[in-house]
Amino acid sequence: MARGVLVCTMMLLAMGAFAQPSSEPAVPAKDFVVICPVEGLIDDGVTVFVKRAIREAYGAKAIIFVVDTFGGKVDSAIEISNAILNAPCKTIAYIKGKGAISAGALISFSCNTMVMEPGSAIGAATPVIAGPQGMEPTSEKEVSFMRAKMRALAERNGHNPDIAQAMVDKDIGLRGVMQGGKWVVYAENKDRAVSTPPAGAVKDIVETILKAVKEAGGVDLPDVKPKPAPEAAPADQTPAKAPDGSEVVLPVGKLLTMTPNEAVKYGVISTTVVNLEQVMGVFDVPNAEKHVLAMSWNELIFRFLTNPLVSGILLMLGVGGIYFEMKAPGHTLPGVVGVVCLAIFFGSYALIGLADWFDVILVVVGVVLILVEIFVVPGVTFLGGAGLVCIILGLYLALTGAFIPEFAWDYARLQNAMVTAMVAGVALSALVYLSWKYLPRTPLFQGILMTYTQGPAKGYVVQTEEQRAIAEGLVGVATSKLRPAGRGRFGDTTYDVVSNSEYIEPGEPIVIVQADGNRYVVDRYKGAK
Questions:
Q1: Which one of 448, 477, 508 terminates a domain?
Q2: Residue 84: CB atoms within 10 Å
Q3: CA 498 to CA 509: how far, in whole Å?
Q4: Residues 165 and 176 reside in one and the same domain
Q5: The pLDDT value given to residue 246
Q6: 3-state DSSP assignment of residue 289
Q7: Pairing of strands 122-123, 90-101
């Protein structure tokens, strides 16, 4: 078992050497930009990759995120967004291919600026969760959180916050008005969005305030013609009267997704591009060296290992290996396999930020408590129960990252954790069953486990009363020196015997004076009386 712990430690050090970045990234002599693809399903593996790209962007002129995704895990996208906000240089979202849909829109709005390739799209960022009818919208709680998150990102990076919110909440309608040669887009239903309407939209409000001040007699103001009160519009519906020259950008009840031309028209992006060279030209780094990144082999492996089915198998092998080591102590192979699998299990979840040392310590303490109950103080069920609770809690925290689920994506993590636990439990039960029923018959297990038994069929029995009576009085000869233990031959059978009192030399005649089980007590034979 100690050898297994040593192998586990060495493996963890090797994994850390590959996975951890240098504390002081090297800065190339000439200008460079980092190109980071954000493609396919947004998950924990992409999170780890983006964080590494941001670390490698120290000293860069910019980091360009090539966004081409239909979305993925919301919590992973939030992690990526937070990492981008702390980037050490200018951040650019280059949206191409499928576009920046759902989580991709959140990532794109996290960047300082965005450009799009013709044929792509951006939007449809409302959170969804898998349900009986497929992907279904989450509750208002998650929508409200994402709405505020998108608004905050837009305000920070100079994007239109109303457009950002309309990509999350279908109850936000948008209207645009031409001002100063460009379109200004604002939200119509103020109860759903924090909006900054154009000057024309607040004209009526200003006139009403001036009229009220004049009537109060405080200030001599020019006459203001009263305007007829507009008809009340139903909740969450387009007002009956809108500023002259305005147009509906998005009706209430529709989720916003924009094409590149629409994004240019309404000021979401400055221009469209067709390749990376154009992106670098637009942002004045045309001659900078391009550092194009790709997922490393260890990031791809960890992305695979955090799959609920794979992590369930790893957990099963870890627990099963330790179980077999306890069943057959001294055979280090099961223990090594178990410890290494548990190290890979916790290491993969630690790399993506879910597990930490506290979770590992909980599991280790739980195992120790169970071993203490089994081998030191058997029958003290409190220790075993406490150990089981520690193991379950450690695994729960490692798989979910949150003690109490709050949002829909937290419950999705919990669902994946349940899949992992179910796979591990079913596989471990099958392994234990096979180990008891079939595996002892195989040559491999006969070499690992002690399957030889001294059963009655082979003559290994404690004497019956009749056999004991026959054994007592048998005369033989000592075949070794009895001092007091040794061996004696009685007819064709050799027994392990014990001298009754004195040393007996080899060759001297002896007689069995007492037989208890497999213990034969002899004395020097002095002949028949």
A1: 448
A2: 27
A3: 14
A4: no
A5: 74
A6: strand
A7: parallel
Q: Where are the beta strands (DSSP E) in 226-344?
A: 247-250, 257-258, 289-292
- CB-CB contact of 149 with 105 (8 Å): no
**Paired residues of 113 in beta bridges:** 92
| In the block, residue with structure tokens 């469209």 | 272
Question: Strand, helix or coil at 367?
Answer: helix
On the question of pLDDT at 43 being above 80, the answer is yes
pLDDT, averaged across the chain:
75
Q: Which element (helix H / strand E) includes 221?
A: none
How far apart are alpha carbons 393 and 395 in whole angstroms?
5
Domain shared by 355 and 412, yes or no: yes
Return the closest-CA partner of residue 105 out of 154, 55, 47, 145. Answer: 154
Give the single-character DSSP code of 21: P
| 100-105 mean pLDDT | 92
The pLDDT assigned to 23 comes to 40
Instruction: Identify whether 17 is part of a domain.
Output: no
| Model pLDDT, residue 26 | 46
Q: Give the CA-trace dihedral at 151, 156, 157, 159, to 10 degrees.
A: 40
- Structural domains counted in the chain: 4
451: left (phi over 0), alpha (psi -120 to 50) or beta: alpha
Buried-exposed string 247-265: b where 16+ CB fall within 10 A, e elsewhere: eebbebeebbbbbbebbbb
In a domain, 18, yes or no: no
Q: How far apart are CA 480 and CA 22, in angstroms?
A: 72
pLDDT band at 14 (very low <50, low <70, confident <90, very high): very low
> What is the full DSSP assignment across 196-220?
---GGGGHHHHHHHHHHHHHTTSS-
Of 448, 473, 490, the residue at which a domain comes to its end is 448
For the cut 90, the answer to whether the pLDDT of residue 119 exceeds it is yes
Judge whether residue 95 has pLDDT over 90.
yes
For residue 467, the model assigns a pLDDT of 74
One DSSP character per residue, 300-334 reads HHHHHHTSHHHHHHHHHHHHHHHHHHHHSTT-HHH
The torsion of the CA quartet 339, 345, 348, 350, rounded to 10 degrees, works out to -90
> In this structure, what token pair is assigned to residue 138?
């989450």
pTM over 0.85: no
Q: Which domain holds residue 473?
A: 462-524
Q: Are 388 and 370 in contact (CB under 8 A)?
A: yes
Helix, strand, or coil (residue 131): strand
pLDDT above 60: residue 7: no
Residues in a beta bridge with 509 = 477
Query: Considering the domain boundaries, does residue 19 fall inside one?
Result: no
Q: Are residues 312 and 245 in the same domain?
A: no
What span, in angstroms and rounded, lies between the C-alpha atoms of 527 and 505? 17
Local structure of residue 231 (DSSP, 8 states): P
Sign of CA dihedral 258, 261, 267, 271: positive
Given a cut of 70, is residue 186 above it in pLDDT?
yes
CA distance to 482, 489, 514, per residue, from 505 (Å): 7, 14, 20
- Segment 328-369, tens digit of pLDDT: 665 667 777 777 887 777 777 766 565 667 777 887 887 787
